[in-house]
Amino acid sequence: MQENRADRPLQPGDRAPNVVLDAITRQGKIAIDDFRGQKPLLVGLFRGLHCPFCRRQIAAMAELTDALQEKGIDSLTVVNTPIERARLYFRYHPLPNLLAASDPERVSHRAFGLPRVHFTETENEWPHKVSKDAVMSMRVDMPGELPEPMNPMAAMEILDRADGYEMTEDDKRMLVPGEGQLVGEFLLDRDGVVRWCFTEVEEAGRHMFGVPAPREVMSAAANMAV
User: What is the largest CA-CA distance in the chain?
Assistant: First the structure.
C-alpha cells in the first residue's frame, strides 16, 4: 500500500488520511478510519517515549480524555516507540482511558505533514533545517519543573533525571532516525476532516516542547458539532 505523505502540516478543512497502527493499550490494530463516520477524534502525534517533553505532552492530552468523551469525542495518542517498549512503559505509567498506538517508523507524522527538522552547523530553514546554535539559543520554560528557562538539551537532562527514565536499546534505536521530528495534535470531525490543530511547526517553532492550553482544546471541541 502506498504511504500517505503530506507536504505541509494538515490544516482545518483538510481531510485526514487513514493510517493503520499497532495498538499499545489493547490488542490488534487501530486505524483512523475506525472512527470515520462514527465519532470525532483528537489525534496526538508525538515523538518516542524517550522524549521527556512528549511524556508531558501525552499526560496533558490524557487529562482531557474524560472532558472530551463527555462531548462524544475520542482521543488517540501515537508514539514513535516500538510496541513492546511502549506497552512496558504504560504498564508502569498507566494513564486512565488512554488509547495509544505505536508508530516507530513515523508513518502517521508524514501522513499528517509533520516534518523532521535536520540539525545543521549553520543553516536555518524552518521547519526543515535548524542550526545547532539556534537550538542551543532556544529556551524551555517549565516553572515548577525547571529551575529557570534553559536550552532543550539541559532541560531534557533535568526532566529525565526527575522522571527516573532509563534509556533502553529500543529508545536508542529511535533517537537517530527520529531526532528532530516535530509533533502536533489534530481534532478531526466525525468525517475525518481537521477542524483544529496545534503543531510545533507553527509560528517558526514558537510552540516547541509546549502543549495547547486546555481551554483552547475544549473550545475547539465545543465549537464542533458532534
Answer: 49
